[in-house]
């Protein structure tokens, strides 16, 4: 077992085993959480389904379990779930909601408890002993399903957003751009000038829509433009005033950042397998 480390490198007082068994609300349902693999396997009546957690959701669940029955403050959760990144409260709310949904705790909210104005707490009553059904080799384990929070919409009026799957340098660059937009920008920015530093980008202007594509290689950039063309055309139909849209793809996830002339930054994160399933309502909320 390895101790969890906090954002400043100090060890947390508890440790999380390689795998943790959780008792869920229904009598026949249990879950096995593997922090190092960002994997949650749910057993219901002996049938096991695997769910791949997002990086941040996995980190938050790991942190909460390590502090079972203790209140974990929001600032510590931000630091551990999104190390080195700037995020807002909506990102944390969405991640906790995704975890609860997988655990079947979205209604009762007794496994992960909200402590008003303080943070969250994991209820140790839902920690369980080892379960025989999970003692199967990786070769026979069911393939993990796409992460439940793979298609998530986070509406964020402040100028903070989390591009959790970007490289650290790209994430910091875009975070700086966003803050600059919110504090000083009233005109459109020359993104081609800004988006350098090892990234490849392309842009196009379609009426009121200024579209930017950002990737780590020319080949990925070309593929990104082709994959997101249907989304670009749909977004164009919702734009009512000048808007900047940034498309990027990292590790199987697409991220769409909508910047409303520096007044607000909103975004959509979606797994590549769910790209075509984004609804008109989700896209409309991003640009409006």
The proportion of residues in beta strands is: 25-35%
Tell me the overall shape.
Answer: elongated
Gyration radius, rounded:
20 Å
Strand and helix order: EEEEEEHEHHEEEEEHHEEHEEEH
Q: What top-tier CATH class of the largest domain fits best? A: Mainly Alpha
Structural class from helices and strands? alpha+beta
CATH superfamily of the largest domain: Winged helix-like DNA-binding domain superfamily/Winged helix DNA-binding domain
Portion in helices: 25-40%
**And the CATH topology of the largest domain?**
Arc Repressor Mutant, subunit A
* Low-pLDDT residue spans: 1-14, 137-169, 179-196
Number of helices: 7
Tell me the count of domains.
2
The main sheet orders its strands as 10-3-4-5-6-11
Rounded mean pLDDT is: 75
Proper CATH architecture of the largest domain: Orthogonal Bundle
Instruction: Please describe the biggest sheet, giving its number of strands, its sense, and whether it closes into a barrel.
Output: 6 strands, mixed
GO molecular function: DNA binding
Keywords: DNA-binding
Protein name: OmpR/PhoB-type domain-containing protein
Domain OmpR/PhoB-type: 22-124
């Amino acid at each position: 077992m390895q101790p969890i480390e906090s954002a400043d490198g100090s060890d947390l007082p508890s440790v999380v085993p390689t795998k943790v068994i959780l008792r869920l609300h229904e009598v026949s349902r249990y879950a096995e959480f593997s922090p190092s693999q960002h994997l949650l396997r749910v057993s219901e009546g002996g049938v096991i389904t695997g769910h791949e957690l997002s990086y941040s959701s996995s980190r938050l669940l790991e942190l909460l379990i390590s502090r079972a029955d203790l209140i974990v403050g929001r600032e510590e959760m931000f630091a551990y779930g999104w190390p080195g990144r700037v995020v807002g409260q909506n990102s944390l709310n969405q991640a906790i909601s995704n975890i609860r949904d997988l655990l079947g705790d979205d209604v009762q909210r007794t496994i992960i408890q909200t402590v008003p104005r303080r943070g969250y707490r994991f209820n140790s009553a839902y920690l369980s002993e080892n379960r025989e059904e999970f003692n199967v080799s990786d070769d026979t384990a069911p393939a993990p399903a796409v992460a439940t929070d793979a298609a998530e919409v986070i509406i964020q009026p402040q100028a903070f957003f989390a591009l959790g799957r970007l490289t650290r340098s790209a994430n910091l660059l875009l975070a700086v751009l966003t803050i600059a937009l919110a504090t000083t920008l009233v005109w459109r920015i020359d993104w081609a000038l800004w988006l350098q530093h090892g990234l490849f980008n392309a842009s196009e202007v379609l009426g009121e829509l200024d579209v930017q594509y950002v990737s780590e290689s020319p080949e990925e950039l070309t593929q990104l433009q082709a994959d997101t063309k249907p989304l670009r055309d749909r977004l164009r139909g919702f734009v009512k005033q000048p808007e900047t849209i940034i498309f990027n793809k990292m590790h199987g996830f697409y991220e769409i950042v909508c910047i409303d002339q520096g007044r607000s930054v909103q975004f959509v994160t979606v797994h590549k397998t769910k790209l075509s399933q984004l609804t008109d309502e989700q896209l409309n909320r991003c640009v409006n």
